[in-house]
Amino acid sequence: MRIISLLPSGTEVVAALGLAQHMVARSHACDYPKEIVHLPPCTIPARGASGVDLPASGQARCKEQRALSVFQVDWGLLQGLKPTHVVTQTLCRQCAVTADEVRDALREDLRAGVELICFESLSLDGVVAEIEMAGRSLGCAERGEALAQQMRARLLRSRDRESVRPPEAKPRVACLDWLEPLMVAGNWMPEMVRLAGGRPAGGGDGVHSGWMQWEELAAADPDVIVAMPCGFSLEQSRDALHKVARRPQWQQLRAVREGRVYAADGSQFFNRPGPRLVDSLEILEQILGTSEGGQRHQGIHWLHLPATAA
């Protein structure tokens, strides 16, 4: 078996299933677990996306590469590695190579038996079901079922706990996927907020994250703001909050005035629909004070920015 993953969360799924040793390549964004970072990347950021220019060798092979929205994919390298499975997604052209792009580029390879494993769910239960599906596709159905059951059990504990708490005890929580301009987190995040003991202030279940005006954020009047910009590390999220704090509209928000603003690692956790979504839930529970465990993620994967700092 020879697996190429073009999706960070897909790489995490493959590794969690115990198949990291069967991976032969990854995307440039696949950085977890550490055992896969030595693999050759099949993608790099395209010019204009992050200021990275294509190397001369890549320019020379332009017929083997295709420019996507924010990625350059070396299809020649990908095909030359002779994968048996390619992991990709349909969620977002900005986040990873999409299934349609892979199908277009590898049409003959797919006909010859290369299997495409596609992640596309926008809900927590859907993500877990797709992990189970990946186990079947990769020939380790029992491991996939076991991993899925572990995740379901963890989600169920939070559901049971929060089902008995009165609504008035739950703070309004705004999870922000982007800050300039504002984007409120959708997909699985509203459900995760409820599981963690809050009420989502914006965003819809199972729908993509959407842009938000400052007036809309003020009208939502969140008690808590958690910044988890897509693709941002904890430090980048913190820095983005410091920049947006210069806006007069920011200072007027209840969460800011009351010192309930938090930065989180959106890249490694909340934005990756894979096995670590249960860790993302734990982080959110720690932020909201509903965690039944310790604070092992604080200062590492999330930070509290008091009113004076924000």
Structural descriptors:
Rossmann fold, 4-stranded parallel beta sheet, alpha/beta, 14 helices, 7-stranded mixed beta sheet, single chain
Task: Give an overview of the whole structure.
- By secondary structure, this protein is an alpha/beta fold.
- The protein has two domains: 3-120, Rossmann fold (3-Layer(aba) Sandwich); 166-305, Rossmann fold (3-Layer(aba) Sandwich), CATH 3.40.50.
- The chain contains 14 helices and 14 strands.
- The strands form three sheets. Strands 8, 9, 10, 11, 12, 13 and 14 form a seven-stranded mixed β-sheet that branches. Strands 2-1-6-7 form a four-stranded parallel β-sheet, sandwiched between helices. Strands 3-5-4 form a three-stranded antiparallel β-sheet.
- Strand 4 (65-67) and strand 5 form a beta hairpin.
- It is globular, with a radius of gyration of 20 Å.
- Residues 48-69 have low confidence and may be disordered.
